[in-house]
Structures are given as structure tokens and as C-alpha cells.
Specification:
This protein is mainly alpha-helical. It has a two-stranded antiparallel sheet. β1 and β2 form a beta hairpin. The chain binds fe (ii) ion (2 copies). One fe (ii) ion binds next to α4 and α5.
Length: 186
């Protein structure tokens, strides 16, 4: 199988065919010691934002899923798993730095449920359009945070990989939407 790669902006290329990268025990460490306060303040805010948005993303795909045995559902499960990976990534980084997730993230859990459920009720085209719209916002948000936050190298690579994944989601939903419009969808 050909590896799917995606280059997000100036970032190096990441293999977006890897939905859940390997994470070995020796990769965990406590972070932030000796970093300036202002750098830490921005890092904390950015990690909380990303963690909260990924909470929403998991729910969008989770609630877009139906029981039908379709290729779209297979791809939604794949995307959901990918978002669960992102959620784990940012949750781990928050705790490695000694922080906790945002206390108001439950509100985004609900937003994700609303987007997921209502797009599902409106049909396949709306499911795909919602995915494209939300992921486009996500890619822009990631770009802004990559630009404005002084990430540690390991966390930066994760943020870049996850941004590449979001771009990959856009491409997949676009391809499916075009196939649908051309009447070639399964
Ligand atoms: Fe994500
Ligand atoms: Fe995504």
C-alpha cells in the first residue's frame, strides 16, 4: 500500500496513513522546567485549545456514524480514531507539563454532538460538507498556533503531524463529495 503523505505549509511531510503512531514508554517526560513564564502561558493556552477542539472533533465523527455497512462509515471510523489519537496527544502533553484540560471543554463535547447528529440527519452530502468546513477551520487554527507559540520540538512535531492529518481529512471528504456529485459514489 502506498503511504499517504501530506505536507502542511512549511512543515515537513508526515505520513497521514498512520492513524495512531507508535508511542513507546521512553517517549514520555515531564516538561516545562526552566521555561520562561510567558512561553509556558502560551503553551498552556494552546494545548488546552487543541485538546478542547479535538474533543469536539471526536464527537462529530462519532455521531455522524450510522449502522450502515458503507465505505463512508468505514472512513468515519478511521477519522474518529485519528481524532482520538489527537485528543490523547494533547491530553498527554498537558499532563507532562503539569497542567489539566480546560474546565469548559464539555461545551465543545456538546457542539461536536450537535454538528455530528444534525449533519447525519441531513444526509451524506451534509456529513461531508460539515467535515470539510470544520477541518478547514482546524487547519487554520493549527497554522496560527504553530506560528505564534514557541513549542518544544517534540510537541511541535505532534502539532504538525496532526495538522497534516486534518488536511488529509479535508482531501478525503472532498474526494467523496466530488464522487457523489459526479454520481460515481458507491
Ligand atoms: Fe484532529
Ligand atoms: Fe480531523
Amino acid at each position: 500500500m502506498v503511504a499517504e503523505e501530506h505536507s502542511a505549509g512549511r512543515a515537513p511531510r508526515y505520513d497521514i496513513g498512520i492513524i495512531r503512531p507508535e508511542l513507546r514508554a521512553d517517549r514520555f517526560k515531564l516538561r516545562g522546567e526552566g521555561m520562561p513564564r510567558e512561553r509556558l502561558r502560551k503553551l498552556k493556552k494552546a494545548l488546552r485549545t487543541l485538546h478542547t477542539l479535538e474533543t469536539m472533533a471526536v464527537n462529530i465523527y462519532r455521531f455522524q456514524l450510522t449502522r450502515k455497512r458503507t465505505d463512508l462509515n468505514r472512513q468515519l471510523v478511521t477519522a474518529m480514531c485519528n481524532e482520538m489519537t489527537h485528543l490523547q496527544d494533547f491530553q498527554v502533553k498537558l499532563y507532562e507539563y503539569g497542567w489539566t484540560p480546560s474546565k469548559v471543554r464539555w461545551a465543545y463535547w456538546i457542539v461536536g454532538w450537535v454538528f455530528g447528529t444534525f449533519s447525519r440527519l441531513m444526509g451524506v452530502t451534509r456529513i461531508l460538507q460539515t467535515g470539510i468546513w470544520v477541518e478547514t477551520k482546524a487547519v487554520d487554527h493549527y497554522a496560527e498556533l504553530l506560528e505564534t507559540v514557541d513549542w518544544d520540538d517534540e510537541t511541535r512535531r505532534i502539532v504538525e503531524k496532526n495538522q497534516a492529518d486534518e488536511s488529509g481529512h479535508i482531501s478525503r471528504w472532498r474526494t467523496l463529495l466530488e464522487a457523489r456529485r459526479a454520481g460515481t459514489a458507491a
